[in-house]
Amino acid sequence: MASSPTKNTVMYYPWHHFVLFPAAFILAAYGVRRYVDVAGNDSEDSRLWFTVAALAVVGLGVLLMLRQHYALTLQDRIIRLELRQQYFEATGQSLRPLEGQLTLPQILSLRFAGDAELPALVQAAIREKLSAKDIQARIQDFHFDHMRV
């Protein structure tokens, strides 16, 4: 019997969590340790270990920022799905034929609109090529999103 994921289920991406991140952490720690041993010497070893440590620390930072990128990409996909559902509930029609004419910033702004004004705002955004800021300025029934990462 397969178990369903629960609220507390932790998902791992093996390459990120068990290979890249530990390797970058070990390399950064080792590079910093070795540089500290030779710091102050104007030698090739000093420059080499400084370079290794700096690159490893930057790489570690990139891997940490990658987690944020994953979360934001997933949220953008969820917002797109929520907007499709909201548009369908408001109009009885699919948003998919119109989606290709909307930019991601427009879609992200349209999510703040209430059901009554959403269809007209979608049409205006397409027809007038409204910016995200312009869309938000036209929203009368603003629904805040406090769950964005």
TrEMBL record:
It comes from the Bacteria. The chain crosses the membrane at residues 12-32, 48-66. It comes from Hymenobacter defluvii. Keywords: Membrane, Transmembrane, Transmembrane helix. The keyword Membrane applies. This is Uncharacterized protein. InterPro entries: DUF6526 (IPR045385).
